[in-house]
Amino acid sequence: MPDLSASLALLTEAMASGATVREGGPPWPGVTAVLATMHGKERAIGPVLARFFGLNVEVATGLDTDAFGAFSREVARTGSPLEAARGKIAAAFDRVPSARIGLASEGSFGPHPQLPFLPFGQEIVVLIDRLSGLELVGHHGGAGTNFAHVVVTEREAGQAFAQRIGFPGHGVILTAWVEDRQVPEIALIKDVASWASLAHGIDRIVGQAGAALVETDMRADRNPTRMRAIKRATLNLVRRSRSLCPACGRPSFAVTERLAGLPCADCGEPTSQTRAEILTCTGCNHREERPMARLAADPGQCGDCNP
């Protein structure tokens, strides 16, 4: 696995030698941007940035981005999603030294923070201009993901799960399941592309281990639902680029925190609903608190009025 800290140090040094952000913000008509991906993310990111920024997005050929963490289980991601994306960009710059703009995306999936029975997906798309030192980060999160899994001991249950998540248009990964845990060392099958290969794979793993974990393949090129989320994160990056810091003019003066406590419309007590947002500049650290447009929360959201 690449040395993430070394890659980030190289990127920091390259950015520190550049000009000011005021001299290098978007758009960048005709500029080539190198994208760190091996899973087709250029299909979601490239057209958006070509339209709004004028960028010519090219893939960093031969770059093994799975080395920074793989949904197919071979390599665990270390560090945060943002650190992983920055590391991918650093590796892309190393592979394409002439590139001015670097791009990468990273996804995270798990239970919903408020409704644990629902899945939740988060995507970030990161753009770094090493000439100006500008970093833009687009975000998209929500329950609109097919992230799921099931443990099966016979093929019919696995086939029913696959049908629910949109197979074969959406991929699945099969792993051996022993004593309530995944054991990819016994069996790991990726790139299951047909109903016949799915049935054969489940039969094989159940025969070896007694049970198989069937899960959605979250690699972007095998998951159109995730590809749409990456596109939305890219659009969010564009929107953030148009929000300028009132103090220094740097792009991406964005929401970094939401403050709960919007008062109930009936009793006036604070609720869990957002009362204000904190916007922060990543350049000069200027902060502003902006109250929400609505002045009161619905009593149905109040713990006292609707316990």
Please give a handful of descriptors for the protein shown.
307 residues; Maf protein; Dna Ligase, domain 1; five-stranded mixed beta sheet; 6 helices; 13 strands; 27% helix; flat
In short:
The protein has helices at about 5-15, 40-55, 80-95, 155-165, 195-210, 225-240, and strands at about 30-35, 55-60, 100-110, 120-130, 135-140, 150, 170-180, 180, 190, 210-215, 255-260, 275-280, 285-290. The chain has about 300 residues and is α+β, with helices and mostly antiparallel strands.
Note down, in words, how this protein is organized.
By secondary structure, this protein is α+β, with helices and mostly antiparallel strands. It folds into three domains: 162 residues, Maf protein, CATH 3.90.950; 69 residues, 2-Layer Sandwich (Dna Ligase, domain 1), CATH 3.30.1490; 48 residues, no CATH class. The chain is 27% helix and 25% strand. The strands form three sheets. Strands 2-1-3-4-5 form a five-stranded mixed β-sheet, with helices on both faces. Strands 6, 7, 8, 9 and 10 form a five-stranded antiparallel β-sheet that branches. Strand 3 and strand 4 form a beta hairpin. The N and C termini lie far apart (50 Å). About 3% of the residues have low confidence.
